[in-house]
Amino acid sequence: MDQIEASTHSAGTEARAIPTIADVARIAGIEDPVLRNLRITQCYHELAHAWVERAGPDLSWCAFACWSSKHAGHMIRAGELDRAFDARLQATPEATDTLHALADRWARRSWRQSADEIRSVLADLARPGALLDIAREETAAANLEIFSEIGLEFVRFLSAFRDATQPVRIDIDRFCGFLRPGREPAGQELLQRAFRSYHTALFEKNAKMRSELMLFGNVSVAVHEQACLQARIERLLAADAEASEAAGESRQLLDRLRPQTGRFEPWIRRYLVWSTGLEARWRAITTLHRAIARGVVVEQLTTLDLPERRLSFGSDLDRSRPRHLVRLTHGELTLFWSELAPVRNASYDDRAEAWTDPFVRRRFIAELLRTYQDAQCLLQPPFSPEQTAEIRRGHVPEGPL
């Protein structure tokens, strides 16, 4: 694995690495989704620091993307998602009791296998592996998609304006000329607006106006991001319906429990299915297992681990807004903010349904960006120095990440 190539920009006495366009391409080309996610997370961290060193204390979208990417890693790494499912399964007595009851009934009538052997078969087949796999794949693909597009533009912007001393309209026009015209998700209209606002913020002397320009840029990037991810989010939260048909089949289960080995086996199998209530009980088991897996996925999607706390979608952020952002005065930002959450007569049965609604989701994210724009804790390294060194060498570090 090649080491990251980086230019440096000095702020005070410290020089930090600034990722390059070549770095973005190299990271995006990593085939292992786990390692790629770690490299993406580290790259966002480096971009977040490069931005603060260039533009001042207000955090950019990259600082939030770093911790969002790190949180996504919990979904991408197979072992962590599986452990979360196992923990919730063990904490749901109804699931284990239903499975054990069917195993005991079958063992008393089948004579071939012990109840423990049957429980093992049932647990193996009931596990919603397809649903968990879809969650991993969609999350890894989204992580790559957003980094390849938005991460690249932040690298381009920092490279283009790293040494600029005054705003030049033709320079930002040239930069935005490489962005696709039109509305999201096909176009990049919001990214154009975001980077124009960032460009103005670079040279703004008034601290309050600079903060509002940064917020306008951050929220514009976030709304663009969510528009691009909408189809993936809908697919992910509908994945249990796709996986349910295969999981609910009792024939595969029957073949595992009672292989056909003799001429009377078809009659014996029919008797066992009838006397144990196999089909109804198995349907209840798989439905419950899928619900537990979906709950794990939804929890991962609707929470965000920051250095100082875990945030949950729909809950109070429990943090005061920065003093420059308590009241908004920037004309475009004020209008944009009012458009983020139009009055909606919508009610939802669960967090998953609410998270699928782009209006609800983007308002929560916008408020998160506004409230934490001065949270310097987000500039903390996402990994230890030892882990970072391993990641740079192209290895996934052992232990918790």
Structure in words:
The chain has 401 residues and is mainly alpha-helical. The protein has one domain. Helix content is 67%, strand content 4%. The protein contains 18 helices and four strands. The chain has a two-stranded antiparallel ribbon with strand order 1-2. Mean pLDDT is 86; it is low at 1-15.
Question: What share of the residues lie within helices?
Answer: 55-70%
Strand content is under 5%
**Poorly predicted ranges (pLDDT <50, ≥5 residues)?**
1-15
- Could you report the average pLDDT, rounded to the nearest whole number? 86
Using DSSP, what is the number of strands? 4
List the helices and strands in order. EEHHHHHHHHHHHHHHEEHHHH
For the record, give the distance between the C-alpha atoms at the N and C termini, rounded to a whole number: 20 Å
SS summary, helix count: 18
Strand order in the sheet with the most strands: 1-2
Cα-atom radius of gyration: 26 Å
Task: Give the oligomeric state of the chains in this entry, treating copies of one chain as homo and distinct chains as hetero.
Answer: single chain
What's the main sheet like? Answer: 2 strands, antiparallel
Number of domains: 1
Main attributes of the structure:
two-stranded antiparallel sheet; 18 helices; mainly alpha; two-stranded antiparallel ribbon; disordered N terminus
